[in-house]
Amino acid sequence: MPKTTVGVSLKAYFGHHQAIDWCARVAERVRTHPAVASGDVVIFVIPSYLGVLPALDAFAGTPVLVGAQDVSQFEPGAYTGEVTAAELVEAGVRVAEIGHAERRRLFGETDDVVAAKSTAALRHGVTPVLCIGEASRLSGADAATATIAQLHADLAGAPAGPVIVAYEPVWAIGAPEPAPVEHIATVARALRAALDALPDRAGSVVIYGGSAGPGLLTELGDAVDGLFLGRFAHDVDNLVAVLDEAAAHAASVSLQRTAETAGATRALGSQVEAQRPGRGASA
Question: Hey, CA dihedral for 13, 16, 19, 25, is it positive or negative?
């Protein structure tokens, strides 16, 4: 059955002890969540750097993947203040958020820097959570073109390996409502098609972030592979509600793809039957 991915980035909202408490409460809930336990729903949590080790302790024995909110573009060496991919993977980090709009806007990260960070992460077996999105509101078609160009630039020269593409239109981050469903679906489908065309990105997924909340995943259907949550997930009950929705989403997508496969098989069978000698000729 197709998996649905749900991610949470805590940014810098929580204090240290608040983050530890949140992770403990989430761990308690996911241990008994059937879709998480079965693997139908994949969940990752990205605390601040100081929260990484406590989060790894809190989620030990659960399927939750722990991530970092950034990663150095450099290998280990004289880079004061940097945290390398090599150190992150040694500690147990599995994913790293790269290229978030705030990093690009506040810290001047360019596509070249993002590509270098993606390269460093993949080189060490850390899956990038690659944040991509158009800066201003565009049509769905124009946004698709812009984000695909960004995708290629942000993976330029990066080693083979799957990525989690988090489509986050900048104009929807922190907004009262997410981007319109039709817009998200248009861009997300285009991004998935672009990933599918890259032979070295097998296993990649496209999730949506940007004021994401309950009900959105159901509306989007198989246009996306999951959601990337922010402040909405600070309330653990809200997060669990999305996990429940993600379980239903995985089952629904599985049924839809099974039906599509069966329809394609029937169509192929009809085509083969029609091409058999004597078919369609007069008796």
Answer: negative
**Predicted local distance difference test score (pLDDT) of residue 281:** 45
Q: How many structural domains are present in the chain?
A: 1
User: CA dist 247 to 32, 66, 166, Å?
Assistant: 13, 20, 19
CA dihedral 71, 75, 77, 81 (to 10 degrees): -10
With 70 as the cut, is the pLDDT of residue 19 above it? yes
Residue 87's domain spans which residues? 4-274
Residue 281 lies in a domain: no
CATH number of the CATH domain containing 98: 3.20.20.70
Is 130:118 a contact under the CB 8 Å cutoff?
yes
Q: Is 234 within the bounds of a domain? A: yes
pLDDT at 14 over 60: yes
Confidence of residue 283 (pLDDT cuts 50, 70, 90): very low
What are the phi and psi torsion angles at 280 (to 5°)?
85, -10
Selected catalytic residue, list 33, 97, 100, 183: 100
Residue 15 in any domain: the answer is yes
Catalytic residue check, 100: yes
CA–CA dist 71, 203 (Å, integer): 22
Amino acid symbol at 26: V
Q: To the nearest whole number, what is the mean pLDDT of the chain? A: 92
Q: Evaluate whether 149 touches 138 at the Cβ level (below 8 Å).
A: no
Give the separation between CA 184 and CA 190, rounded to whole angstroms.
Answer: 10
- Is 168 considered catalytic here? yes
CA–CA separation, 13 and 127 (whole Å): 24
What are the two backbone dihedrals, phi and then psi, of residue 165, each rounded to the nearest 5 degrees? Answer: -90, 115
173 φ, ψ (degrees, to nearest 5): -70, 125
Higher pLDDT, 32 or 283: 32
Catalytic residue of the set 97, 109, 134, 168: 168
